[in-house]
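Page 42, continued from yesterday. The earlier attempt failed because a stray header line got pasted into the input along with the sequence. Redoing it now with the clean sequence only.
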Amino acid sequence: MKREKKAKPHIRFYLVLLMFCLETLAFIGLIVGIIVLPLYKYLWIVVFITGFLNILCSIFIANTNVESGFKISWLVVINLFPLGGIILYLLYADKITTKRMVKLRFNKINSELDKGLTDCSNTLNEIKNIDENAYRVFNYIYLNGHSSAYKNSSMEYYTLGDYAFEPILEALKKAKRFIFMEYFIIDHGIFFDSIYEILKQKAKEGVDVRLIYDDFGSVFKVKAFFYKQAINDGIKCIAFNRCRPFMDIRQNNRDHRKILVIDGVTSFSGGINIADEYINKITRFGLWKDNCFKIDGEATNGLTNLFISNWNIAHKDKLEHEKYMFDANKDLVNHEIKNDGFMQPFGDVPFDNEETCHNATLQLINKAKKYIYISTPYLIPDEELLDALAIASKSGVDVKIITPGIPDKKLIYSATRSYYARLILNGIEIYEYTPGFNHLKCMVVDDEYCLTGTVNFDYRSFYLHFENDVLFYKNSNIPLIRDDILEMISQSECINKSNRKEGFFKKIYRAFIKIFSPLY
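This time it went through. Structure tokens are written below.
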């Protein structure tokens, strides 16, 4: 297969970044010019007005209904940069949620999800009869995450992206009616080019092929107008939330989901994007440790619904949920689907005042009796999660966390390490994965639950991005996933007081960047 020459879109990225900076400085300069210059002879008045505005803004931020880490970060910003900090907050914090914003943006998204909900009362009651604690987690996600719980489904787990490559290609080749793909990153290479050839062929055969990719996530990977090329090739395509050289708070909200749905009966998700490093065809930071999983059966509805909800808010060509769900396409199933426990695919929408992925994670931590094993590439937890992990550890629960030993982003790596001391002090074991970069996003609890998907253990995933996770309960793969994490631990360096000695200036540096970690 002929490899397409890789694009060099860095010019577009730096142009967007430059324009953002220039527009922000220009706006700040305009405000300062309006307020300060006319009063330059009366400096005390300028100082008084600036101080008064800082106090008002600080009071407002302190009383907003947001996580305390955001409040602290922005309070530091506006007090370090009087007036300019206030302007930055108003431009980019995206924290003022008015009734009009909720009606126009958030209710619209969640109403799309509601259209794809299926009646799962019998499934929830069955879970309740097994364990009321499990029922509460599933019911919370159902009521607040607009996502149904399923059984009559099976899951196949791939402990590396490498192992998912061929199954994905084979599943795509069997598509008869439609293919839905939604990914944060697509990048020309063996992985994406192999998939793209199949997508083009399937489109020619009359299969409804649709692709959503995040424009920022793929800005260094594909050409600026790649979606036009895809449309010319018969693929209905959206570049989600396109990077534009204009001030826009929505640029902070990226589509971090990884979803592949085939004919409404088979689906894939996990941590891998569609790029060669995720299947170790190229090496960037040693072995790229990630996961992928395949779902067959009714639970595919959850991922189908997430895709349709984002498609319908971003494209004028609206999809009818019912046509793409499992029941409408189950005639294409040509093998027996084993009922393997309970599954609940669900997503998160930024700033709808319901952090579903965060709260589901918190619930599982609080319900742990034996162990909590967490793998994450970025560890920047909020106070609630830190306290929950500490209480679990102090109660005798075995808490282990694996982070990367080789960083892909040095600033985030330093921010991650800034949390080690507090976690270790509370008896939590920290491991850094040394064979390569750990991109696995997964939490296993008590051999009963597994929560895995696209969500990093950080503010950006919990509060800012469109994400997707799947909650597995009583699934036969959970011991496999647990053993995979334990195998990772055996290859990792345990971090403790003796091997994490830091110099004075490094401590100061990490303490400083920790203050701003919610903004990264």
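Notes: The radius of gyration is 24 Å.
Reminder to self: strip header lines before submitting.
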